[in-house]
């Protein structure tokens, strides 16, 4: 049994884990392992927003960013997903990952200018949401091996079975920084206007989670059980966070279906949400009725199927320092992403 925290990031603890040293989890889970030389990773979300069917401008923007991803210094991995938000707009989000800050910096300047150029007036909203956390500030978790997702695609490999999972608090215990830091948020979100572009300055220790499901390997009875008994409960929780999450610390939530290169829906989905703090995310996970129902449905499903379950689950959770964040929006409605965390009418000018 391994620790989720790799040896080169382990340090003397001033904050204790929630479980004793002899804790044995009831089922196996695994984490991504980067090479020790990797100091940070970059997670960059590029979104387009429109009503109804995709316009020529939206389709062109998606083709443009895919071409840039394939160019010099582009990401090691990227994927695309879509959802309809609380205002009825379709959002198509391409998320790209780097593990070399120099390559990202060389790529990002021109890409950012092209994506949210302040002279754009094609009726399509665009946004960029970037975290570039030190490796001590995020964690991953996978229910099975063989198909990494998200930032784990960049990893050197996967761990053996890890100890810190299957208990409330495991998410925090897998983040290396949690050994010495409570990761408490500091400051309040505000905006800076740059022509038509709006930049959001969030705060220290902002939290991001991407939590995914892959049912492509399931067979008839298991697929029916997931789609009939689990997915509707998951959707209910995701919709709650989307529509009513702000009072409990969730600034924004997207429950998205992954699409292929031709824009067709796949049998993969993920929730992606911005939280005021890891503690707020933990409180929702541990005690809110919407997540209690999700947890109950998932546990019934997994206990019924046992080791034969072919549903794949994963997540990545990041707690980012203030200088590891970048948010920019152009032509988007005011509840888009981190815009939902601020009151535009009271925002300062640049």
UniProtKB/TrEMBL annotation:
Keywords in alphabetical order: Heme, Iron, Lyase, Metal-binding
UniProt entry tagged with the keyword Nucleus: no
A GO molecular-function annotation: lyase activity
Cofactor(s) listed: heme b
Presence of keyword Iron: yes
Family label: Belongs to the heme-containing dehydratase family.
Protein name as catalogued: Aldoxime dehydratase
Organism: Bradyrhizobium macuxiense
């Amino acid at each position: 049994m391994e620790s989720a925290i790799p040896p080169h990031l382990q340090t003397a603890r001033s904050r204790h884990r929630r479980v004793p040293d002899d804790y044995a989890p009831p089922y196996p889970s695994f984490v991504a392992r980067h090479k020790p030389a990797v100091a940070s990773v970059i997670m960059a979300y590029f979104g387009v927003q429109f009503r109804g069917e995709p316009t020529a401008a939206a389709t062109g923007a998606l083709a443009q960013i895919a071409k840039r991803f394939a160019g010099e210094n582009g990401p090691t991995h990227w994927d695309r997903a879509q959802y309809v938000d609380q205002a009825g707009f379709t959002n198509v989000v391409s998320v790209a990952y780097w593990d070399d800050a120099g390559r990202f910096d060389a790529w990002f300047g021109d890409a950012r200018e092209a994506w949210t150029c302040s002279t754009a007036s094609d009726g399509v909203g665009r946004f960029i949401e970037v975290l570039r956390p030190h490796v001590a500030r995020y964690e991953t978790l996978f229910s099975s091996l063989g198909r990494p997702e998200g930032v784990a695609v960049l990893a050197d490999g996967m761990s053996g079975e890890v100890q810190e999972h299957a208990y409330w608090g495991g998410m925090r215990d897998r983040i290396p920084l949690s050994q010495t830091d409570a990761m408490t948020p500091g400051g309040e979100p505000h905006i800076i206007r740059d022509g038509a572009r709006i930049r959001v300055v969030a705060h220290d220790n902002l939290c991001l989670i991407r939590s995914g499901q892959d049912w492509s390997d399931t067979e008839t009875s298991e697929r029916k059980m997931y789609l009939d008994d689990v997915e509707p409960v998951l959707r209910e929780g995701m919709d709650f966070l989307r529509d009513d999450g702000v009072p409990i610390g969730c600034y924004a939530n997207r429950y998205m279906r992954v699409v292929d290169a031709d824009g067709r829906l796949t049998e993969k989905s993920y929730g992606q949400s911005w939280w005021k703090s890891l503690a707020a995310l933990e409180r929702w996970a541990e005690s809110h009725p919407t997540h209690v129902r999700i947890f109950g449905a998932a546990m019934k499903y997994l206990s019924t199927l046992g080791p034969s379950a072919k549903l794949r689950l994963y997540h990545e959770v990041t707690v980012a320092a203030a200088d590891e964040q970048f948010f920019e929006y152009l032509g988007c409605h005011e509840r888009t992403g981190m815009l939902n965390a601020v009151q535009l009418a009271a925002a300062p000018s640049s």
